[in-house]
């Protein structure tokens, strides 16, 4: 039997999509979800690949995954040439072993042109990046400081957002936000923790103001002209059975099984007004 710790799961993007796309559209604008993870960024902000993809320890250092020194055992790639899911004729997950993960890929762009992918082991808790070395970085390009948080705007097609018990081969919205957690450089979680989810369906409140928003426990204050590093914590232990079912993991049991699961289509990185902060 395949051991769970040898199973590689691509979280957040499918081989048929283009990964995580960050858009500079304002919250009131609609953004097509043709990609697997699209992030709507408040107009005052700019989102780029974090220090984990850069050739030094500063936010302004050059994007160069081959020369970067990511913390821990994380592997990083330039998505333009090494798509984790084979989108540019790369070998994708087939070229990734359990020793290569967690893995992250990004291209050298920002906002609407930025693409991001991650692959991790199933049944593992870990992080991609750390407090001062972000997976992404948020630049405040205004003359005022802003409180910033991340919310889940649209979930992927492996997530059941209907009322009632989630489907057997899908995750609930609550399970997704418990799997993906975004933290600021001070170690504070700035994404929802699932506390506002429906007890039966696991569906979260809407983040767009049409109903009570997804409450976050913390925001991060980004000073005028400053850049904040944001890293990703993942937990594929708590809901491992459901992730495996949604991914439909298969493969050679001697090599480890690999597959993808689409958890998030759209995130919101935005300025907070304090109304939906615990």
What would a concise description of this structure say?
The protein contains two helices and 17 strands. It has helices spanning 173-179, 240-247; strands at residues 8-11, 20-23, 37-41, 45-49, 75-78, 103-106, 114-121, 125-128, 136-140, 146-155, 159-160, 171-172, 180-183, 220-222, 227-235, 258-261, 264-271.
Note the main attributes of this structure.
278 residues, mainly beta, ten-stranded mixed beta sheet, 2 helices, 17 strands, globular, disordered N terminus
Order of helices and strands: EEEEEEEEEEEEHEEEHEE
Structural class: mainly beta
Roughly what percent helix? under 10%
Straight-line distance between termini = 44 Å
The main β sheet shows up as: 10 strands, mixed
Average pLDDT score: 75
Per DSSP, the total helix count is: 2
Using only CA atoms, what is the Rg?
Answer: 18 Å
User: How many independent structural domains?
Assistant: 1
Which range does the strand content fall in? 25-35%
Total beta strand runs: 17
User: What general form does the structure show?
Assistant: globular
Low-pLDDT segments, ≥5 res: 1-6, 12-36, 251-255
Structure in words:
By secondary structure, the chain is mainly beta. The chain has one domain. Helices cover 5% and strands 31% of the residues. Strands 1, 2, 3, 5, 6, 7, 10, 14, 16 and 17 form a ten-stranded mixed beta sheet that branches. Strands 4, 8, 9, 13 and 15 form a five-stranded antiparallel beta sheet that branches. The protein has a two-stranded parallel ribbon with strand order 11-12. The N terminus is likely disordered.
């Amino acid at each position: 039997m395949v051991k769970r710790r040898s199973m590689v799961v691509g979280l957040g993007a499918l081989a048929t999509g283009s990964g995580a796309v960050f858009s500079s559209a304002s919250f009131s604008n609609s953004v097509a979800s043709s990609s697997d993870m699209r992030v709507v960024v408040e107009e005052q902000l700019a989102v780029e690949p974090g220090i984990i993809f850069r050739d030094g320890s500063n936010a302004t250092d050059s994007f160069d995954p081959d020369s970067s020194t990511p913390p821990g055992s994380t592997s990083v790639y330039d998505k333009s040439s090494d798509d984790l899911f084979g989108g540019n004729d790369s070998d994708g997950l087939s070229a990734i072993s359990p020793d290569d993960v967690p893995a992250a890929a990004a291209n050298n762009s920002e906002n609407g042109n930025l693409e991001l992918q991650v692959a991790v082991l199933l049944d593992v808790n870990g992080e991609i990046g750390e407090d001062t070395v972000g997976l992404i970085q948020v630049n405040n390009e205004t003359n005022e400081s802003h409180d910033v948080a991340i919310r889940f705007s649209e979930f992927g097609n492996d997530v059941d957002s209907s009322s009632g018990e989630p489907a057997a081969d899908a995750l609930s919205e609550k399970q997704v936000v418990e799997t993906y957690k975004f933290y600021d450089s001070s170690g504070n979680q700035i994404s929802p923790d699932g506390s506002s989810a429906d007890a039966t369906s696991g569906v979260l409140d809407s983040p767009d103001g049409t109903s009570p928003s997804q409450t976050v426990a913390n925001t991060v204050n980004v000073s005028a002209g400053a850049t904040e590093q944001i890293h990703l914590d993942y937990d594929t232990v708590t809901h491992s059975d459901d992730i495996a079912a949604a991914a439909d993991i298969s493969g050679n049991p001697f090599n480890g099984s690999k597959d993808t699961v689409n958890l998030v289509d759209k995130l919101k990185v935005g300025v907070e007004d304090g109304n939906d902060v615990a």
